[in-house]
């Protein structure tokens, strides 16, 4: 209900630009298994600690997305797990399809637009430096822009969103390198694009060694 009395407004009331089933959030995730994933981090902290850190990051991603006013799809790397931290009542579940990251992301966006979603954003599941508000701001940015990009400190991006499918964004990229962001922005040079704040994703020990939340996972190498 709309109210004129500001004192009666709840600050947590739904933002009606976000409470829209035409918004879709794609969450790309790797099945958390010992000895798989976070290999660069594991090289320093070990396989067991790397798995626990990744599980911690997955839980953070659930926390910042579960109450987001958008449809949400979790795309698994290996197989769909029906009973895990991703609540089936809040998240749809699919399997990534394609030989490389670009093809897999392209297929997810393409399917989303074929299903008549109007604003689609993709994120990974290892961003501790990301909040629900950040994702909401990205959806809002698509009200006035055709694309939105969240630059990562390592030269990639942690978030990509669009109003229309643009296959060029997923081609001719060397995924996992520091050229991805630059090449993506080159593709978008003539497009109306919002650029978010630069954030740090978690790939190496150096990314977490000074962050208090990760200290419980690092006791074995800091003692």
What does this entry look like structurally?
Helix 1 (39-45) crosses helix 2. The chain has a seven-stranded mixed sheet, with helices on both faces. The protein has six helices and seven strands; from the N terminus they run βααββαβαββαβα. The protein is of the alpha/beta class. The chain starts with 22 loop residues before the first strand and ends with a helix. The chain has helices spanning 39-45, 47-65, 101-114, 132-141, 180-187, 219-222, and strands at residues 23-29, 71-76, 92-95, 119-123, 147-151, 157-162, 193-195. The longest helix has 19 residues, at 47-65. The relative contact order is 0.17. A hairpin with a 5-residue loop joins strand 5 (147-151) and strand 6.
Q: Helix and strand layout, with pairings?
A:
Blueprint: E1 23-29, H1 39-45, H2 47-65, E2 71-76, E3 92-95, H3 101-114, E4 119-123, H4 132-141, E5 147-151, E6 157-162, H5 180-187, E7 193-195, H6 219-222
Parallel strand pairs: 1-2, 1-4, 2-3, 5-7
Antiparallel strand pairs: 4-6, 5-6
Helix pairs in contact: 1-2
């Amino acid at each position: 209900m709309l109210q004129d009395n500001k004192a009666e407004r709840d600050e947590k009331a739904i933002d009606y630009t976000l409470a829209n089933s035409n918004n879709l959030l794609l969450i790309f995730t790797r099945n958390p298994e010992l000895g798989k994933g976070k290999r660069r981090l594991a090289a320093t902290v070990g396989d067991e600690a790397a798995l626990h850190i990744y599980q911690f990051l997955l839980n953070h991603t659930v926390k910042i997305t579960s109450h987001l006013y958008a449809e949400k799809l979790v795309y698994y790397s290996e197989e769909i797990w029906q009973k895990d931290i991703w609540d089936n009542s809040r998240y749809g579940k699919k399997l990534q399809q394609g030989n490389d990251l670009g093809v897999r992301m392209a297929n997810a966006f393409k399917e989303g637009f074929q299903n008549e979603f109007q604003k689609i954003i993709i994120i990974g599941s290892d961003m501790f430096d990301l909040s629900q508000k950040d994702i909401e701001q990205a959806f809002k940015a698509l009200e006035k822009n055709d694309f939105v990009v969240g630059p990562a400190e390592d030269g990639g991006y942690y978030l990509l969103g669009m109003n229309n499918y643009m296959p060029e964004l997923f081609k001719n990229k060397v995924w996992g390198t520091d050229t991805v962001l630059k090449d993506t922005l080159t593709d978008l040079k003539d497009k109306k694009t919002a650029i978010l704040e630069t954030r740090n994703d978690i790939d190496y020990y150096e990314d977490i060694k000074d962050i208090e939340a990760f200290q419980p996972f690092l006791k074995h190498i800091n003692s």
